[in-house]
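Please, structure for the following, as tokens.
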Amino acid sequence: MIKVVLYGPESTGKTTLAKQLAEHFNTFWVPEFMREYLQKKWDDEKELVSKEDLLPIAEGQLKLEKEASKQSENLLICDTNLLELKVYSEYYYNGFCPSEIKEEATKDNYSIYLLTYIDTPWDADDLRDRPNNREEMFRIFEAELKEQGFPYEILKGNEKERFDKAVKIIDALLTE
């Protein structure tokens, strides 16, 4: 199965693109569990992410991906994966990331990472908190891909340009 990951800093259009690609290719997409989990935590307790949330978030993401994989025949679009959780964990917690997340995040389980660039408008919400650190975060995300040796392509431009490039990349993977 071809597994495509939308990966990159917050507010760079990953969810929008994941939905569009899944619809275009008539397949399933895996939503970002962390967003749902943390929004509920914010709504219920007015608290942001803590170290204690990392493993439940990872488990929830893996569960969603496993369920969607069972339903998909040849292509799965992932709004994120554990490598993104690893990057954020290490960024927010001075290099700390639970070993279980590191181990799973660094497995080469995906066909391609589509790294979303920061040339999209910032969309503020309850959870997004670093509108001025987008360039730094992009460099960190790309450095992680390079360090792991994972295949990736950078998506830049407007929504249509990103979509068209992603379709072209996925089409090539499907015909290999």
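The radius of gyration is 15 Å. The longest strand covers residues 2-7.
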